[in-house]
Structures are given as structure tokens and as C-alpha cells.
Amino acid sequence: MVSMMRLSRTLLAFGLPLTTQAVLAGYTFEDGNLKGEANLTAGGAILSTRQVNFGAGRIDLRSRRNDGTKIDWQEFYLKPGVKLEYALQPDFSLLAGGSLVAATTLGDGDAGGFTRRSDGEVSTEEFYGGFRAGEWTFTAGRQNYMIGTGFIVMDGDLDQFKDGAYWLAPRTAFKESALLAWDHGALKTQAFSLRTDGDLGDFRMTGANLDYNLADQVTLGAMAMKVNALGPKGATPLRRDGMQVYNVRALNAKVPGVPALTLNAEYAVERGHGEGVDYDAEAWYAQADYAFENVPLTPIIGYRYTHFSGDDNLADNRQASWDPLSKGYVDWGTWLVGDVVGNYLLFNSNENVQQFSLKTHLNETLTLGTIHYQFWLDEKNYMGAAVNDRRFADESVVFLDWAPSRALVTSLSYNWVKPMAAAKQVFGDDQTFSALEMSFTYRY
Ligand SMILES: [Ca+2]
Ligand SMILES: [Ca+2]
């Protein structure tokens, strides 16, 4: 379907719909019944972090070595792709597509210890075939798929270790997947079966999703799926075999008489049992954004509260921690909650977050924004260790996104995190963990 990554950060900033990315067709060609597109995406980032882990230092996840508090690194990737459609009849076409990702990490490796200087490789990203018959589409293989805003299902591949480019995260495709979609105007529904990569825990999600656009006033959605763990038992901290996930959402809701106000909300539960535990977790958010269209710089102010349940008893047979499964990334804070906290410290489980945002448009191509996040643990434990206080940290970011053309998107940001009681206790330090980030994405 669509792959957003950091490209869409600015598209969303300009209030363009997600489908705008379809406009970014690369080199297109048509020959009789065959039409296709070849495209190339290139991305790069230069990152500089200080007082990593609040002064406790960066821990390499593989060697457990502490590499100090000053971590600087660079990431690059290239992603060439091709899409083909061959019409056998006016209403029936064969479809095929594929792409490669070549990524690398240079310098000290990322601040979370997920990648090192030498990490990076070339691998197949998408590779699928299928057909379109009227309003029906069937595709199978390696492909991208996203539900809603990527709250639960979007990124099927965790970019870590030998993948390289942890922060840019160019890999998102699901493996050994099948997708049957019915696109009937305002009503869109899909049946899916998707396998994630081993870094994410190697599991399969099988279910169905439905979206209904109600007169452009709100898009209502619902999803139900089952999770099967395919990797070795105990390979991930959270168990998930046999889990059932149910999700309802209302996105881009307009309030009658208040066109400047946009509301978004979603609610999800994880139920069922397997691997000796009962699943009993929940996650939800509610967000309001207000756009001042007639004020200089057309500011948009926003507030969001997000809850990812935690587990008050890690020793019993009830797993109450929300499992983020294959959450994705579409824009600042969604669903990488805090560029520092979300990348290196908390991963959408056992977490409550208040988010205050302000975005302004300096001109057609420049967006200046700021976001302030306040983090609490939902239950008094962090990665399995007990803590005395729920208040975890505050993160702030100031970002400048520059999109001189539809093809090129660049971003400069400064992010800083102040530890609160829980983070101070966990890391034994109280410095401000900061990150200066510069990145670009170019798509032909
Ligand atoms: Ca990824
Ligand atoms: Ca429990």
C-alpha cells in the first residue's frame, strides 16, 4: 500500500492527505497494456546526542558495553523500486512490485545501541504479485500495509543490528503476506495476513479492517485480528501467541460549526490467551487540533492524551502491558512518541503521555513547530524493574521542516529530555538527554 517514513512528516505538516504521496510517481511508462513506474528514494541523517540516558551513557545492546554519553552518528539509505500493472481486460489487471533497501550507519552507532558503525546491508524490501479485478485487489508477498495512522499495524520490520539506519528506519514491508482489499468509494475493507521480521519478534497478524468515510466529516474504522508467534518462545519480553486485538477509531473528525477543529481518537484492547498467560491490555488516545487560518503564520495548536497500559504484577499469569506490535511512523509523535524517548527509552507500552503541540507555516515551504511531551509510567515498573514513582520524563522539541519541492523534504530539530523521578531512579543520573537531528528524504 503506502510507505510513509519520514517523507510524510512535511506532507502532513502542510495538511495534505496521506494519499498525496501517490502524486510522487517516479519515472512512469506505458506500452500497450503494460504500465509501470520506477522510483528511487534516498534518505540521510546526521545526529548528535549528549548526556545519553541522562548521563548514564549509551549501552550497546549486543555487547552491553557502555560507550559514553556523547554519541554522534550518520545514517544513509537508497531505496529503488518498480511497480507494474498489466491489463488483461479493461477490468482485470495483473500487478507486481518490488524494491530494495541499501542502508548504512556510520560514526558511533545510534544512541539506543541498536546499531553500530559497521551495520548496514542491502536487502529486498517489497516483492509482491497479484491482481486487480474491478474494486477488488489481491496481492501476496512482501508488501507495505497500514491501518489508520499506524497505531498498531504499519511497520513490519524493526531496523536494528545488521539492518543499519535505526533512526531513519527505511524498512517497513511485511513478509509472507497476503492482502485482499475491496475499495468501494467511501467504504474500504481489507482481509490481511502479515508476518513481521525477526527483530520485531517474528509473528503473524491475521484479521480484517474496515474504514468508512462519512461525508468527509469523519473516517470511522474497526479492526480485529489474531496474533501467532512464530519465533522461539521467550524470544521477546512480551508474550503474544494467541493474542486477539480489537480496535475502533474515528479519524479526522470535523465538528459541525467549528471547521477549524479536527478530532482524532482510537481505542484498542488485547485479549485472549496463549503461552500460559491471559492477555488483558488496552491503549487509546484522544487528540484535538485547532487551526487558526486567518492569523499570521496560520498556527495549529494541538493536545493529545495517549494511554498504553502497563502491568501491575509482572509475576502473575495476566499480561496487562500493551504490546505495540507493528506500530508505525507517519508524523512527529505518531507513533514514535517523542523522538528521544520514543526511539531510545519507552516504546508505547506501560506509558501515559500528554502532548502539547504548536505548528506554524513560515511560508509555502517552511514549517516551524514545537511539541512538549510529559511522560508517566502506567504502572510502577520499567523494563521489568520496580520503581517508586510513575512520573518518568519531559521531552521538548523545536523543529524546522523545509520542503522546497514535492520530491525533497528536509528537517532540522533539537530535542531535549529532562528526567523525572522514575527516570532518575532507573538511570541513576539526572542530566538532560538531548539530540540534534538533521535529515533529508529525496524521492524521484
Ligand atoms: Ca522499520
Ligand atoms: Ca501481570
Automatic annotation (TrEMBL):
Q: Which superkingdom does the taxonomy of this entry point to?
A: Bacteria
The secretion signal range is: 1-25
Protein name (database record): Alginate export domain-containing protein
* Taxonomic source organism: Pseudomonas chlororaphis
**Which keywords appear in this protein's UniProt record, sorted alphabetically?**
Signal
Please give the SUPFAM superfamilies that the UniProt record associates with this protein. Porins
Keyword set includes Signal: yes
